[in-house]
Design goal:
Layout: E1 5-10, H1 18-31, E2 35-39, H2 42-48, E3 53-55, H3 83-95, E4 100-105, H4 107-129, H5 135-140, E5 145-150, H6 166-187, E6 190-195, H7 202-211, E7 215-217, H8 228-241, E8 247-252, H9 265-276, E9 280-284, H10 296-315, E10 323-328, E11 331-336, H11 337-352, H12 356-361, H13 365-377, E12 393-399, H14 406-419, E13 423-427, H15 430-435, E14 439-442, H16 468-479, E15 484-489, H17 491-502, E16 514-518, H18 534-550, E17 557-563, H19 570-579, E18 583-585, H20 593-608, E19 613-619, H21 628-638, E20 644-649, H22 661-684, E21 690-695, E22 698-703, H23 707-710, E23 711-712, E24 717-718, H24 727-734
Parallel strand pairs: 1-2, 1-4, 4-5, 5-10, 6-8, 6-9, 7-8, 12-13, 12-15, 15-16, 16-21, 17-19, 17-20, 18-19
Antiparallel strand pairs: 2-3, 10-11, 13-14, 21-22, 23-24
Helix pairs in contact: 1-10, 2-3, 3-4, 4-11, 6-7, 7-13, 7-22, 8-9, 10-19, 14-22, 18-19, 19-24
The structure holds adenosine-5'-diphosphate (ADP).
Adenosine-5'-diphosphate binds near residues 12, 43 and 105.
């Protein structure tokens, strides 16, 4: 059997994470025994052939995971739009014996790939006729297999929930808006921030949600009144009256009014300067959004997509239609490519003919939910309660170790609760504060600015109440007439609530609905694939590892990086995947001496073969004896002729920092769902306690009594952990170049 030959190219606009995708494609293909070529400069390279088509080996994609842009280049090619250009492209592929193509690009690039594939037979027939290729070559490659994945910061593609680059672009936007917010607040100014998105308001909407912006303009949902300018001014003025010191307006570049007329940032500036009588500044973020290092999420998404693309193409039958690999409900999926391209184009068409209802209808439910939530969050003050409406007293607090995003969740819960007409109580310092009656009523502005703040403004601690603490807590609940509790926290928070409900017979006060919202950098809570804070911690690890790696460019050095997680290896595995670590040690697997011996031998072999840098990630509790220092000493001793070793214990920097956009978005989403759930329970007189979780794309409220069934109480982690299935892919990517 002849070796399968496939090629990969990046095309259209670049996006952070494209390199991770190329790396995964190359390494998976080599691992599966295929030959793999990179086409440089997108379709133009395919048309040009020659040096633009290069065979890749394991090391040609080393050290690129952390780099923005695309190392194989991208271009817009007018020539490929012509049949003659595509004939040249087909000739070049046949010359190399390639008949499988993985395209990383936007809808234009993927449409081009489909056209190319449909013309393949006729292009080859032409090439045979003109004697450019032999009839045998044409027979050998009767079909061109296409697999696409979307590299686009806009997240504008139907079928996949996220596209490569979007999360990194949101990082750039939140960083910029956070910075602008601090200067805006100092000067009591209004800022307009323009972000990318011609036909898709994803970046504007989620950027606004993540930064606590005060107004948003997106293409899919133009302002629904003709005098929207007056409404906007009036709302912002109301905000100032309610105590806001500044305003941030985020607009997508494709923002328009109901008549389809583009709204320029200078139009908005003029309206606001006249209406508010103050200075209004415009910041156009532009290409900053496309640039910079990819986020942890983009590196991992792109790696998983790249892997899946190769598996798909190697298993495809010759007649298979083009496939899109994408993500849905946190899993990698395959979809019919052209159907997705058509539905993507349908949104742009709907916007072009001003059918905004259809455009919005084509967006995902989370997009629509986010828009609804945002409309509440940007209000200056809550809606007045309905006459005669029952007002519940709902307490919100943080518990357990701090996790970035806790404040964001509390802010969303408080505002949504107030807007629905209820009384929101804030408890300071977790369960200790609850026992000590540290309770105060929160209003709309009490939570201003919390969307982007790391740590915990209300305070949190790890106390798990027992004995007399439970008495004191029962009294606080009764004295404050609390109808429901929202506990935002990690393992200790869950344990505390579990203890409370196990003691309901002795403490009738605990017969109220309580919901736990997962917030822990360890991502070790049952019922939920993600807990708030884990994405920020992962990005902290990736940032630190990138820097650590750079510090060793001139030496042959291996770093042993210790990360948090207790007995849950999520951060170690996902951190390993995102940083390209050679090895990761997980508490789920432990560490054996035999493995360490093998690892040191592999590292020595790698360094002897020219490798300059090694990275090993160890979860803090992977093994009580083979500690980070032990591993360093062992490696140092065994590898002393070849490389040296340094430990890097990342410690609490993993828990710190402002929350990542993903954590902010998740926190807002989960908090609003928790609040709705509690209010429903109060209305129905249902006192079951629950913990919320997002699994397989579904939101579930699990009965708190199932906590011990779903989690291992001794090892403090869920009995099932979805991410462990990614171990094989992480191991594959980390392998050394095969010995020749
Ligand atoms: P994106 O892929 O980001 O949407 P473009 O629309 O600019 O970016 O497309 C990138 C490239 O893909 C184009 O320069 C062209 O080479 C190719 N392409 C796009 N549309 C077509 C088409 N209809 N036919 C052939 N090639 C196309």
């Amino acid at each position: 059997m002849t070796t399968k030959r496939i090629a990969v190219l990046t095309s259209g606009g670049d996006a952070q994470g494209m390199n991770a995708a190329v790396r995964a494609v190359v390494r998976t293909a080599l691992d599966r025994g295929a030959e793999v070529y990179a086409i440089y400069e997108g379709y133009q390279g395919l048309v040009d052939g020659g040096e633009s088509i290069r065979k890749m080996d394991w090391d040609s994609v080393g050290g690129i995971l952390h780099r923005g842009g695309t190392i194989i280049g991208t271009a817009r090619s007018e020539e490929f739009r012509t049949r003659d250009g595509r004939r040249k492209a087909a000739f070049n592929l046949i010359q190399h014996g390639i008949d499988g193509l993985i395209v990383i690009g936007g809808d234009g690039s993927l449409t081009g790939a489909d056209i190319f594939r449909r013309e393949w037979n006729s292009l080859l027939a032409e090439l045979v006729q003109s004697n450019e290729i032999s009839a045998e070559s044409a027979v050998e490659h009767p079909n061109l297999l296409i697999v696409g994945m979307v590299g686009s910061i806009d997240n504008d593609f139907h079928g996949t929930e996220m596209t490569i680059g979007t999360d990194s672009a949101l990082h750039r936007i939140t960083d910029a808006v956070d910075a602008i917010t601090s200067t805006a607040a100092s000067h009591q100014r209004t800022f307009i921030v323009k972000v990318m998105g011609r036909n898709c308001g994803y970046l504007a909407l989620f950027g606004a949600l993540a930064t606590g912006a005060d107004w948003v303009l997106i293409p899919e949902a133009p302002p629904d009144v003709d005098n929207w300018q007056d409404v906007m001014v009036e709302r912002l003025k109301a905000g100032t009256k309610a105590g806001r010191r500044h305003h941030i307006i985020i607009m997508a570049e494709g923002a328009r009014d109901r008549d389809g007329k583009y709204i320029g940032s200078s139009d908005v500036q003029r309206v606001l300067e006249a209406g508010l009588g103050e200075e209004v500044r415009v910041t156009v973020l532009g290409h900053v959004q496309r640039g910079g290092r990819p986020s942890a999420y983009d590196r991992n998404l792109a790696t998983l997509l790249g892997y899946e693309a190769v598996i798909t193409i190697l298993n495809a039958k010759p007649e298979d239609e083009p496939v899109l690999v994408g993500t849905k409900a946190n899993r990698i999926i395959r979809l019919p490519l052209m159907e997705c391209v058509e539905k993507t184009k349908a949104v742009a068409e709907a916007i072009a003919v001003k059918d905004y209802e259809r455009a919005m209808g084509l967006r995902s439910s989370s997009f629509k939910d986010a828009f609804r939530t945002l409309k509440t969050m940007v209000r200056a003050l809550p809606h007045p309660p309905e006459p005669g409406q029952k007002k519940f007293r709902i307490a919100v607090f943080h518990a357990g170790a701090p996790a970035p995003g806790m404040n964001t969740a509390a802010r969303a819960a408080v505002r949504l609760g107030l807007d629905l007409g209820h009384i929101m109580l804030g408890v300071s310092n977790g369960f200790e504060g609850l026992a000590e009656n540290q309770v105060q009523e929160l209003n709309w502005t009490s939570v201003s600015g919390w969307a982007s703040l790391g740590g915990s403004v209300m305070g949190t601690n790890r106390m798990v109440p027992k004995g007399k603490d439970l008495h004191a807590i029962a009294r606080t609940i009764e004295d404050n007439h609390m109808d429901a509790l929202l506990v935002i926290g990690g393992w200790n928070a869950y344990e505390a609530v579990y203890n409370m409900i196990s003691d309901q017979v002795n403490f009738p006060a605990f017969n109220i609905p309580i919901v736990c919202l997962p917030a822990s950098i360890n991502n070790n809570l049952p019922g939920s694939e993600f807990s708030i804070g884990a994405d920020t911690a992962l990005n902290n690890i990736v940032d630190a590892a990138d820097k650590i790696k750079q510090s060793a460019v001139a030496t042959r050095r291996c770093f042993v990086v210790e990360v948090m997680g207790h007995w849950c290896g999520y951060l170690a595995l996902m951190g390993g995947l995102a940083t390209g670590a050679e090895r990761f040690y997980l508490p789920e697997e432990g560490i054996t001496l035999a493995e360490l011996q093998q690892d040191v031998a592999d590292l020595s072999r790698g360094f002897r073969a020219g490798k300059r840098l090694g990275l090993v990630i160890r979860n803090e509790d992977a093994n009580p004896v083979y500690t980070t220092n032990f591993i360093c000493s062992l490696f140092e001793e065994e590898g002393k002729d070849v490389f040296d070793v340094r430990p890097a214990i990342l410690g609490h920097l993993q828990q710190g920092g402002d929350p990542s956009p993903f954590d902010r978005i998740q926190a807002t989403r989960l908090a609003s769902l928790c609040l709705e759930h509690l209010i429903n329970q109060c209305n129905q007189g249902n006192t079951d306690s629950t913990f919320i979780g997002l699994q397989n794309g579904h939101i579930m409220f699990h009965d708190m009594r199932d906590f011990d069934r779903m989690a291992d109480l001794k090892l403090q982690r869920p009995r099932e952990q979805w991410w462990l299935q990614l171990k094989g892919i992480a191991n594959l990517m980390a392998k050394l170049a095969p010995e020749s």
